[in-house]
From TrEMBL:
Location of the region described as Disordered in the Swiss-Prot/TrEMBL record: 885-906
GO cellular component, one term: extracellular region
Residue ranges of domain ADP ribosyltransferase in the record: 232-377
Composition skew (Polar residues), residue ranges: 888-904
Protein name, UniProt field: ADP ribosyltransferase domain-containing protein
Transmembrane segments: none
Originating species: Prymnesium parvum (Toxic golden alga)
Amino acid sequence: MRTSKRRKTLASSASPAAARAALPAEQWTVGGWMESLELHAPVVAALGQKAFADITRLSHDDVGALLRPHGLAGLTETVWEGICQLRQQSAATGAALNAKFVAEAGTFEMQYGGLDQFWAGLEGLVGPPRLLHGSLRRAMEAEHCDAADSDAPFTTPNGFVGATSRREWEWVVQPVAGGKYVERTDLRATQPGGARCAVPLREFEARVLPINERLKKEGHAVVVHEELVSGRLYTAAMYHKYNAVLRGCSSSRPLRELRDTLTRGNTYSTTIHAINSLVIKLSKLTSACTVWRRFTRATLPREFWEPDAHGFRGGVEYGFCSTTVEREQAEHYSRGAASTIVEMKLGMLDRGADISWLSAYPHEKEVLFPPLLGLQVCESRVSQRTLVVVCRPSLNMTALTLEQVLSKRRKMLLDMSDSIRLEVRDELLRRGSAHVGKRCMSCGVEPIVGVRYESGHDSRCLCEADYLRLPEGERAHCAAVPPWADALSEIDSRATLATVLLRDGLALGHSPDWYNDDANFSAAVSDALAIRRGLCDSPAKLELRDCTTLRELPREAGGCHAVNTLFVVNAPCLTRLSAHAFPPRLATLDLHQCRALEALPASLGQCARLATLRLKRCAALDHLPSLAACASLRTLAVTYCTRLAALPPSLGACARLASLQLTGCSSLEALPPLSRLAELAELTLSGCRSLRALPDDLGGAASLTALILRDCVRLAALPPSIGRCARLEVLDCADCAALVHLPPESVAWPFHPFPLFTSTRPCDATTTTVADFGSCTALLSLSLLSCTSLRELPSTIGGCVRLQCLNLGGCSSLLQLPESLGSCAALEDLVLHSCSALESLPDRLDGCTSLRTLGLDGCTSLRRLPDISRLKSLDQSQIPSHLLQESALESQPRQPRGAASSSLDNDDLKALRHAVNLVGTEHDCDRARMQTSHYR
């Protein structure tokens, strides 16, 4: 037996509880029972199958005469009232009335799309939403305030005259107090109190809060700010432009011309997507009801009256579809020529959005449908002069919210992560099987090492390849753990790491709109491929190179037990390493160009097998964890980590450390004690421009062979203990502009009448005893290039008997060289370019028998050379010619005693200085005067 439901219009703004109360539960009624009996059939038989015109010509007596013989005389008045109403109809059927509308002057045919447009979706019409400087709001503002049509007045069919996009944006976003905004003509007269008001946006932000709570409770996305703004704009004059853009995508030339005239090329794509997203979200809260849409002077196309090949009638609405839950509102707006009302019953899935709470005209009780709404004609009827078409709405299945639209590219990355995980696993399985040299039994080859699999009636021996293909849950059916289970575990660990890196690190590491930037999306895809290569490259190495969007190295990296080398190169967004990210066998860790990395986890200091730690251009790194437990550490290289201010004090516990390289660490101010680093061979501190001193116990590093101090501009001195570095071969202090001396420091000389003498003999009680730089007997190269504050070298430098290269170029404050330099018989290169204050060279320079290069360019204070005639290997091309001439004169024989000149000239005095080797005391000075008396 059929039942019926009580028809009642329900406003979509009603609460769910109220809606359920208004809809009675299905129950038996007399009316439904009578309807099921089809009592109209006897009446039809009595009246006969007459045409519409024949029925309307019947009189009251005719009706009674037809019904009385069938015993239906009691229905005469009821049927007569129906005939009177029928006579008021303009046509017998809806199709006929629509045909009459077509013939009327001033009407136009509405344009609807087909299934091709329906499935193409909104992006197929207007393209994707756009972001301006990463913001949807800015893009929407630009569409309304910075476009060609922003200040062009326009008129809407419902009575707005002189509206502009800029003023409408202002009315919604930041209305001016007392500002005058255009209103629909005669609305104040026809709808008292119905004029729109300039309400601050913050009021709607408060109104949406309970709505968002309902959406959250039902598991839906909430309404965002951009959707509020766009929805408010639509309810006033801007609806006309938005629909003109959408309907201008049809084949109708007038609609395209209207679009071009109104928008001047502005597609409003971001705003249209935001309105569409708002409708999709709010439609989830709309209760079941019937809604009506009205229009005049428009006719429906042929597709609404003639079934297509599949038997359907209807079309696809290009634009937004505004309806109301109050039929009176629809009838009010449908008054006029060619009046049509579309009646739609909302379904469980196909619902519009109640936007009356957001509307400029809330009294209209508007329910809005998104673009590309499918309208399937169910029936049509004529109500006096109005055509009523009953349709079934179908929401576009491709319609997406803003979050979904903006997340399309991110979803692609999520899907890619699953694919790459399978690719990584398959690639590692292929390599592993090929390496072991086993093949599946299905290939006809008996497994070399097998494992028995027992599951129900399934009993077989599995080779490696078979076992690796088993789902993880089925491996429990194996009788024993195969010897290659560790390899399988490693493969699974890498596949899991691939998923985490791609999903959490790339696809979910940024906001959805971040991926809509072409450069960002391209970088993320490149990173995904780089991760794939890095995971499949080598079983012992994990290399993540050029992962420019990677933000975290997850703990799953620590599960790769076979990895001993971890490279992370050019990951500028990497900010964190998980505390469990280090494999247990890790021996080498290289972090290059991880500019956002601020700290390393403390767990790094527990990597007992770590032998090499390289940190290059990690500009945000300001400290290192304790390395006390890194007993195997051999190399620590920290390069251009400009914020690193200190090394951990526990560094001294790394007894096997052989190379400590701190290049370009411009914030480093001090080093921890180094005396316990017995195997330290190389110490590089180039570019440590804040370093003021070296540890006093530097001499405890007995294995030190190279000390590089280039560009340590604040370093004023070297520790005296450097003399104990007996294995030191290279000392490079180039560009140490503050370096004043090398140990030992200058002795406290007493007053000398002749301060021109230099002593290499032990000092007396009036001098200060210092460390002996000459103990560095293994020194091969000493560079003091551009040490502009250096005034002298230690007098004991002659003890460096293996010294081969001494570079003093640019030492503009250097006054003289010690006489002991002449003892450096192995010296091959002596560079003194631009030593502008240098006045003389050691007289015993000819003791440097291996000297090949003597650079003296720019030594403007140097007037003469010592005797260099015995330096047979010396290349004299770099010696200024005037100095060579002076040297030639010096080498000429002297006149004997009693010759023409009896006075002591300058040349004689110079020769005397060269001949006498005296200590710097007053007694020796007196002896010098006495020995020169025979020249007078």
